[in-house]
């Protein structure tokens, strides 16, 4: 069999545009026995309440008919799309639909529904059960002398909830049912979000499935950014011994044509490190977020520190330096070295900058606030005017974005967000948290990888060498308010994902301090910008903690 895996970058809700993208990809696969798209490629991943719009299902039906007419003389196409349920009134089915000879028909309906609680490959999955029914069994497609078992499932890396482990309430496993009915191959239509290490783990397990059941296995995955989620593509094909036949491109659209009669081809390479994978994921996520939101430009506040430096590098790579504006907003507490570093970074990237000193605005705020502050006695540790600086900067950034019709990229990291080391309506502003799922340790690691890849100190060495600081008061250092990052970040990893990292070895006092700050900062995270997900437990819909609770035990 010659099968083409269409690794599409769908825009959620843009059914008309996605239809054309699928047609363009299918036309590149002339001569294939079958073309296959990822799950929900026609409407885009995680459509949410779009599915509840009265005309959405009908629009998808029209698109299926248009695909059928356009491909009347083309190869058969198996496309992921929502269709009207035959099981439950008011719901849709997440389905694999065969387009062939001017007609379309549903071949398989998704059996494996996400409950939004599976964090094996990236949290925050759409809660399928709210919008889709659950198929009775996976369908079989007879084609070109083969019997193809068609499986729709986004999760191939979390073994406990993967399609080869899932069971019906009756105890039957859908995959085993397909094997018992007799299939030559499994066609796996996926929309599996990226997280560090998930691709490698998924490949091992899919290879095991193919070898154990002695079937070919073709897994086609979505690619592109969709709000917080990033899809890495890297579609796969295995022979019945579990040998890898082909792998699609990482973080790019691709048409992966696999001819089973020819044996293995040279696969597209895996990322060589976690840092490379994170860089490519964040670059794609930023590019697609900006473009799919209809924007063309971004604004980045440049402090001369590592976080803003890395975000600016990602933005320049994702969009081109001509679409990035760096804003320097010095106060009396900023060192001259920080300004020099910020300007050097921008020059190295070819990014235009503007400098807006905030000291005059600081004086205006202090004068205006004086009568009101007189009502409240100052307490030890008061940070009112430190926060005013951050909020002035937030106002300047968003005002420039208004004029430029641009998006502000937030520059906060996961370590700071976890412990609330951020100012609401100040440095927390922005449309997208580009590195909000990277700990400070990971930020430095990705930045070092970037400089090595470029073969030059694009990020000036002084930014690596100096101690991290918000520079909101004289001599301030992050270590004044936070544990050292080499202590904090491993604690956070274990607290956020104990199943993955284990809870052993945690220092009780340090653990309690970090945990208490983690829970107390929830009210800030609820108001934070959307965050690009690259870890197994990002903050967002997958992380659940009360805002008004109080963690206290007897």
Note down, in words, how this protein is organized.
With 554 residues, this protein is of the alpha/beta class. It has 16 helices and 20 strands. The strands form four sheets. It has a six-stranded mixed beta sheet with strand order 5-4-3-2-1-14. It has a six-stranded mixed beta sheet with strand order 6-7-8-9-12-13, with helices on one face. Helix 1 runs parallel beside helix 2 and helix 5 packs across helix 6. The longest helix has 21 residues. It starts with a strand and ends in a 23-residue tail after the last strand.
How helical, in percent, are the residues? 25-40%
SS-based structural class? alpha/beta
Q: Note the main sheet.
A: 6 strands, mixed
**Assembly level:** single chain
Mean residue pLDDT = 91
Main sheet: which strands, in order across? 5-4-3-2-1-14
How many beta-strand runs? 20
Radius of gyration, Cα only, in angstroms?
25 Å
User: What distance separates the N and C termini?
Assistant: 65 Å
Summed up, the helix count is 16
Based on Cα principal axes, name the global outline: elongated
Itemize the secondary structure elements and their pairings.
Blueprint: E1 2-7, H1 15-27, E2 34-36, H2 56-70, E3 77-84, E4 92-100, E5 103-109, E6 139-143, E7 146-152, H3 174-181, E8 185-190, H4 198-213, E9 216-221, E10 223-226, E11 229-232, E12 236-238, E13 244-247, E14 254-259, H5 274-292, E15 298-301, H6 306-319, E16 324-328, H7 336-349, E17 352-355, H8 359-373, H9 384-404, E18 407-410, H10 414-419, E19 432-433, H11 440-454, H12 461-465, H13 485-496, H14 498-501, H15 508-520, H16 522-525, E20 530-531
Parallel strand pairs: 1-2, 2-3, 7-8, 8-9, 15-16, 15-18, 16-17, 18-19, 19-20
Antiparallel strand pairs: 1-14, 3-4, 4-5, 6-7, 9-12, 10-11, 12-13
Helix pairs in contact: 1-2, 5-6, 5-11, 6-7, 8-9, 13-15
């Amino acid at each position: 069999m010659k099968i083409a895996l269409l690794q599409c970058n769908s825009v959620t809700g843009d059914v008309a545009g996605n239809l054309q993208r699928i047609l363009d990809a299918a036309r590149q696969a002339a001569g294939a026995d079958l073309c296959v798209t990822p799950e929900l490629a026609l409407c885009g991943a995680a459509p949410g309440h779009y599915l509840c719009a009265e005309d959405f299902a009908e629009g998808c039906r029209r698109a299926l008919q248009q695909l059928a007419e356009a491909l009347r003389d083309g190869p058969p196409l198996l496309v992921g799309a929502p269709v009207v349920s035959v099981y439950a009134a008011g719901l849709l089915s997440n389905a694999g639909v065969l387009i062939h000879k001017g007609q379309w028909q549903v071949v398989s309906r998704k059996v494996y529904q996400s409950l939004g609680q599976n964090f094996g490959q990236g949290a925050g999955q759409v809660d399928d059960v709210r919008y889709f029914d659950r198929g009775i069994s996976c369908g079989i497609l007879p084609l070109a002398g083969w019997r193809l078992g068609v499986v729709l499932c986004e999760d191939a890396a979390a073994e406990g909830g993967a399609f080869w482990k899932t069971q019906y309430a009756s105890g039957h496993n859908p995959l085993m049912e397909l094997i018992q009915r007799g299939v030559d191959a499994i066609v796996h239509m996926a929309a599996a979000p990226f997280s560090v290490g998930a691709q490698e783990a998924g490949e091992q397990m899919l290879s095991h499935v193919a070898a154990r059941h002695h079937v070919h296995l073709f897994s086609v995955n979505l690619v592109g950014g969709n709000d917080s989620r990033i899809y890495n593509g890297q579609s796969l094909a295995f022979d019945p011994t579990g040998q890898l036949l082909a792998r699609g491109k990482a973080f790019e659209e691709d048409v992966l044509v696999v001819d089973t009669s020819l044996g293995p081809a040279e696969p597209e390479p895996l990322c060589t490190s976690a840092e490379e994978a994170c860089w490519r994921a964040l670059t794609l996520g930023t590019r697609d977020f900006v473009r799919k939101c209809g924007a063309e430009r971004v604004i980045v506040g440049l402090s001369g520190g590592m976080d803003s430096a890395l975000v600016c590098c990602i933005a320049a790579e994702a969009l081109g330096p001509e679409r990035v504006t760096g804003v320097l907003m010095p106060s009396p507490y900023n060192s001259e070295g920080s300004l020099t570093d910020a300007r050097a970074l921008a020059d190295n990237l070819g990014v235009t900058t503007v400098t807006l000193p905030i000291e005059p605005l600081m004086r205006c705020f202090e004068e205006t606030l004086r009568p009101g502050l007189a009502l409240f006695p100052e307490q030890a540790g008061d940070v009112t005017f430190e926060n005013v600086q951050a909020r002035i900067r937030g106002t300047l950034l968003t005002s420039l974005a208004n004029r430029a019709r641009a998006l502000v990229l937030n520059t906060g990291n996961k370590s700071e967000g976890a412990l609330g080391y951020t100012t609401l309506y100040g440095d927390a502003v922005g449309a997208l948290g580009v590195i909000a799922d990277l700990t400070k340790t990971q930020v430095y690691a990705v930045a070092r990888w970037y400089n090595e890849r470029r073969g030059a100190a694009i990020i000036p060495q002084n930014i690596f060498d100096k101690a991290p600081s918000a520079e909101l008061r004289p001599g301030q250092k992050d270590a004044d308010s936070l544990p050292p990052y080499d202590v904090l970040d491993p604690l956070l990893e274990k607290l956020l994902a104990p199943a993955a990292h284990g809870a052993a070895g945690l220092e009780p006092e340090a653990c309690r301090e970090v945990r208490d700050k983690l829970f107390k900062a929830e009210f800030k995270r609820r108001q934070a910008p959307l965050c690009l997900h690259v870890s197994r437990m990002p903050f967002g819909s997958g992380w659940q903690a009360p805002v008004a609770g109080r963690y206290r035990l007897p």
